[in-house]
Each structure stands twice: as structure tokens, then as C-alpha cells.
Amino acid sequence: MRPTFFRYATVYVALTAMLFLAFRSYDDDFIKRLLEQFRAYSEFHPAEKVYVHTDRDAYLTGETIWMKGYLFNGTTHEVDTVSQVLYVDLVDPVARRVRLRAQLRATNSYAPGQLTLPDSLAAGTYEIRAYTNYMRNYSEAYFFRKTLTILRPDGVLSAANVASAGGTVARPDVQFLPEGGQLVAGIESRVAFKAVNASGRSMSVEGFVLSAKKDTIAGFSSKHLGMGYFSFKPEADQTYTAFVKLSDATTASYPLPAVQAQGVVMQVDNLSHKDNIKVYVSINKNNTAETAALTLLAQTRGQAIQAAKIPLSKKSALIQLPRSQFPEGISQLTLFDETNKPICERLVFVNKDEQITVALAPNKTTYKNREKVDLTITTTNADGKPVPANLSLAAVDARLAPEPDSNGATITSHLLLSSDLTGTIEQPDYYVNPSHPDRWALLDLVLMTHGWRRFTWSDVLSGKASPIKYTAERGLSLTGRVVRPNQKDIGGKVKLTFLMAKRDSSRLFLSGETDEAGNFGAYDLDFTDTTSVLIQGIKGAANRNLTITLDQMLTPTVSVTRVPYNPLEFSGDALAEFIRRTKEYQEIEQQIRRNGEVLLQAVTVKAKKEKEFDSRVIYGTPDASVKFTPMNTSGRMTILDVIQGQIAGVQVMGTGMNASVQIRGASNFRGAVEPLFVLDGMPMDLQGIMGVSVQDVDRVDVLKGASAAIYGSRAAGGVISILTKRGGPNYDFTKDVTPGTLVAKLPGYAPVREFYAPQYDTKKPEHIRPDYRTTLFWAPLIQTDAQGKATISFFTSDAKTSLRLQAEGATISGMPGVGRATVKVN
């Protein structure tokens, strides 16, 4: 199925003038084919991005993780309203298991919700993983991930063991990556490197490079978070080895990539010129045709930006790419050889100052305990002009909530960087924070040491797009397959009936059929919390040999390349205080709940029992009703056989499957009018009714004349309403074990709880309890107006501390922003 729901940006193609070369515009067949196939591929494979803001980064078991999901169009970064279901998993990376899972309803691309941590959860480092169903078509590397620390009241954190057994120093993981992808003999090349320790954290390294002749070629040392680069000119038929110095005075060796005798090297200067990206291409190839040429393509998130041809007759060329043509974010530069195969790639970041400034202004700088805080939020663009934005905000006790990494992931760094890169980026917010003047040079190092692999060029150029298996969900989906017990195809379509029992006692009845392969699906469903579903397959007399499976029972696998490190640093006193205060507050909450339960048990309520609500019945008292019992159904084949002669004015002609029915007085000038048949609230034809077993029916109601008017003109012949036992509000069909059926529990949308924040300006009995909450306030849906303004209020707690405020969000057009503030409580 081809998704057509994403907007695709217009392709802009510019044949860039070459510096030092008299270049003309090309009407090139390969460029035309490349751009057309790239456009088609991008339209068929649009992307979505997800970000989740949580109230903090460390929790105690029994607490609640308050969160808000943001959904974006992966190409334009506009607010994406296509997918309306966001899946959030709490992943245990050590056990490689999903411990908790929630399905959040996304309305206008915003999905507030929460995860309650059970007391049985083990202390340790976990990951929040978030994705849409559509994102499952691509690599799990592009799911949103965030590291959380979860503690127990009696738990402690243990430091990561970075040394191997026996007391030897662990060998660091150091990757050496030639710029553009290859080393070519006789061409000066830059080689970037990245070093991480055994726990996956970056580490500073230094070392040197030796040739096979034991000549020292270059020295190197990391500049930032284990990253750096060095330059050298490799020789033909020569091998090179890098040696990294270890803390015990030994060295670890790493072979550099092999040197190619002939080839092309691409180097990029994205720092020296404010208006242009400079691309240097150096060529070492012999015996090439005079018309042979290289092709350079620049693309950003599936949008082709610029293309150019480079003659192979030139040994070097400089291409200048105007930044004004690029959208903000990461762009990929790909160089194709004369046979139209990709040979070099490089990532660059283009800054357009398209983030918003989020200013948090409390009405005071210092507050007393339980005093009201009035906070004004302002959102402006780079020019200082107001822009409306949707935000989420958390206010936490800075003493109880350990300080997260000041350069940790935010909505800005995720949208512009992490969501388009594979691998882990340490301190991602460092590279988008204007307070760091060296951020662009260091970001260039990041892009030289990280990959971008949303697609492969062989797939694009072949024109063979992989199928879209997982669709974008506008509601909850119920999909699965019907097969034989031996897992073989059923051999044709199978009729299915679905019965869903919701928490509010309402029932949803659906009917349909599978395709020829046995696949089925019900889409755009809307239910909250856990729902029971019964699925029955009917295929002639063979329905007893059917096996029904649900896709909902299958979740994405958990693949962890390295256990995420704990980004929080606890001092002993801070950890003890956090656990003590949080445990005290949990005990108070539990005692309040217990007191409430005792009060409820002590109250006796006397009232007349109301009639059980049945969502299948939209009418009042029927004109007649037949209760189906073992006595009146014995020996009867169909529902009409049972009601024949039981209701005055209802005439049944014939018997068995050939019977028909008419309600007296239901006719017009054309003759008798057949009644409307309704099965558990859903209109059905007579043939469908005849297939319902009489043992499954609870009763049949008959509506005549004015009583049937509630069903409109289609009920001119009256109404025969069949109510099954399974469809009743009190029937527990989960205990049914019938061949050819499946009974399962399905998770619906997670109910969105309101964050409790006491209002101390009005006295209430519960205010006598101590208040030492870690999260004082959580507001997931703050919308600034056309003037970029919004105001919120909350109260301080009993702690004399500092409050750490952080707001994150984005505009409709996808401009992200983060705001921070601190207030004192004395």
C-alpha cells in the first residue's frame, strides 16, 4: 500500500558553477534519472519523527513518569497529524525486554500520558523507547530513545566496571573513518576518529600512526568527547596502523582502512564561509574517457537540493553549494563515479536560526513555602518576533531531582541531529546551544564520525521500493491472520465476527472477512484501557480447524548494541535525600488511599438498582419480546423457527434456511415490506441472521409501527432485534473456549491522568500533610497565543530549595525550542 499522506517538498535542482572550472549547465540523463527515482522513492517512503519530553530523568519505583510525545513530519519537520497512536516502551536493556508499554492517543500530533512504575521493578538504567506503527517499516535505530534511572527505596547505584578481569586495562573501541569514505594513494586525506570505553562513554585518547615500514606518519589526540582527526597522504601498496596509548603505558593497535591505488577523495569545508559549503574533490584515476564525469547530489531528509557534474579529466575541483538553498538540519552529500555508483559521502549541518526562544519569567525570584508562582511563558523566533507554539513544562525540586546532563537531549537537538543519525550522540544539546562558540567545529566532527542510513542508493537507483508493511494509524488497529492449525494457508476468504467488551460495559460488534491469504484488519478503533475481544471465524463446516492470531501480540524486538550508561551523577547525600523524601511522600499517599477505602466500606448506600445500560439497545420497551431458552430452542435450526407463532402479528413463512418473515401491517403499494434485522445493534441482512446459532441468542425484540421509527425509513417494515448472549453487558466471553475462536485482551489508549498539584490558596483537609514532592508541577499542553504568550500558576512545596523549570516544544511549522529557569524557595 502506497502511503500518500505526507507532504513532499518541491525538488529544487541547481547545477552549481565550479570554481577554477568553466562549467556549463548540464542536461544530463543520469541526473534526470537520479532525481526522478529519488523523488519517487522519497514519496513512497516518507518518514516520521517522534520526541518524548519527561518531567525528569530519575524516579523511585511506585512513582509516575509524566510525559508528552511530539510527532513530526520527517521531511519538513512540520507538525504531523497522520499517525494518531504513539507507542511508548520502558525497555530493560540488560534483559533486552520491554517492562512496560503504553499506547498514547496523539491529537494534533501531541500525545500526553504517563507510565506508573511498579514496586516490583528492579533498580537500574532503563530506556524510554517511542515510535509510531509506521516507523516500524524502518530501522529501530530511528526510534526515539531516552535513558532513565530507576531506584528502589533500598537500592543503590553501582559504578560501571570499565576494567576487564585480571586487572588489565580494557581496550577502548576506536573507529578510524576517512573523510568521504576512502583513502586513495597520493591524495591528502583527513581521517576522523571516535573513541569510547567499555561502558559506551566517550574517552580522551592520543596516539600515533605508523606505516608498514615503521615510519611515524602522524600523531593525534582527541579534541572533544573522544573525537578528533588527523591528515596524511597515503602511499600506494602501503598499510597503516594507529596506536592508542593506554593508561597503563601500553598501546592498543588499530589497522587503518586499506589504501586504494586509484579513486576519488571528497573533503568538505562547512566552516570558513558563511554563505557557501565548499566541496573539494580530488581525483586519481587513469585511462578514463574524456566525457566521463562524477555526479554530486546534495539532499536533506528526502529533498533533493542541488546536483552537479564534475569532469574526470580534471584532477581537482571545488564546488560551492549556497546555504540559502538548504533547509535547516543535516544534509547528505553523495558523490557518484562515472559508472553511476556512490563512492563518497559526507554529512553537513546547515544552520538557519530556525529555532524558537522560550523565555520563562516567574513573577518573583524568591518564594516562601506553599506560595503561588505565576509564570509567564514567551515564545519568539530568531528575529525576536512572537510565534505561537505548543509546549510542555516541568517544575521539579532541584535538590531531590538529580541534575541531568546540562547538554543532554532536548527537542531541538533530537529533531535537528539525533533523529537523523545512527549511533549515540553524547551531549547532543551542546551542538545547538548558542552559548558554545565552538559548537559548529565540534559538530562537524560528530558528522564525520556518524552515519546516515535511512536508505541505500542501490534501492533508490533500482526503482524497487520495499513494501510498506506497517501503515500509519489514525486510530487503534486490530490486525491478524487466520490459518490452519498446521500454519498452512486457509485457502480462501474466511468470514469473521468481532465482539469487543469495553471497560464501560459497552460492546462493539464488527463483521467482515479475510483476504485470500487469511489476513484481516479492523482500523481506526477508539477504546481506552484494556479491552476484551472475541474473534470467531466461519468457513463452511471447517471453522473448527481455524487458528486465529493477532499482530498486537507482537512488538518490535529489543536490540541493544551497548547498555546505556547512567547520565546522572548522585552524591551520597543527594541520593539518600531523594529516596527518603520520595518514600515518605509515597507512604503518605498510600495511607490516604487506605483511609479512603475504610470510609467507603463503612458507608451503606440504599437506593433502587438502575437497569443495566445496554449499548446495543437504542429503543425503549419493545412491542414484543421472546426469551430464548433450552425449551423453545430445542430442535430449532434458525432464529425464525424459534419465534414462529410466538409473537402476535409476526408471520413466518417456510422453515429452515428458506424461511422469511413479515410483520403484519408493514406494506406499501408495491406489496409486503421486509423488516429491518439488527444483530447486537448492527443492521444485518436476513442471510446473516440465519447463520446465527439459536444457542447463542439471549432474546429477540420486535418493534412495530411508531416504535420502529427510531431506526428511520429503513425500518418501514418494522424491526426484529436479535440480542446475543455474548453481546450482553454482563457476559464474560473471555471464558469461552470454542474451536475457531480467539479470546484476547487488547491494550487500548492509556487513560490520561491529570497531574495533581495542590492549590494552597484554598484550605482543604488534605493540606495538613507534609509536601515534599519531587515534581511539583507538570503541564503537558501549554499553547502560547498569537503574541507568543501563555501564563501558568502552581504552588511551592514545604522544602526550602531551588526549583528547576524546563519547557520544551515546537511551532506548527516545526521550529523547536527549549526554555529554562530557576527560582528559590526560602
Automatic annotation (TrEMBL):
Coiled coil spans: none
Residues in TonB-dependent receptor plug domain copies: 633-719
Subcellular localization: Cell outer membrane
Domain Macroglobulin span(s) in chain numbering: 49-140
Gene Ontology cellular component list: cell outer membrane
Membrane-topology descriptor: Multi-pass membrane protein
GO molecular-function terms, A-Z: endopeptidase inhibitor activity; siderophore uptake transmembrane transporter activity
Keywords: Cell outer membrane, Membrane, Receptor, Signal, Transmembrane, Transmembrane beta strand, Transport
Pfam families the UniProt entry points to: MG2, Plug
GO terms classed as biological process: siderophore transmembrane transport
Membrane-spanning intervals of the chain: none
Major subcellular site: membrane
Highest taxon, organism lineage: Bacteria
Keyword Repeat part of the UniProt annotation: no
Name assigned to this protein: TonB-dependent receptor plug domain-containing protein
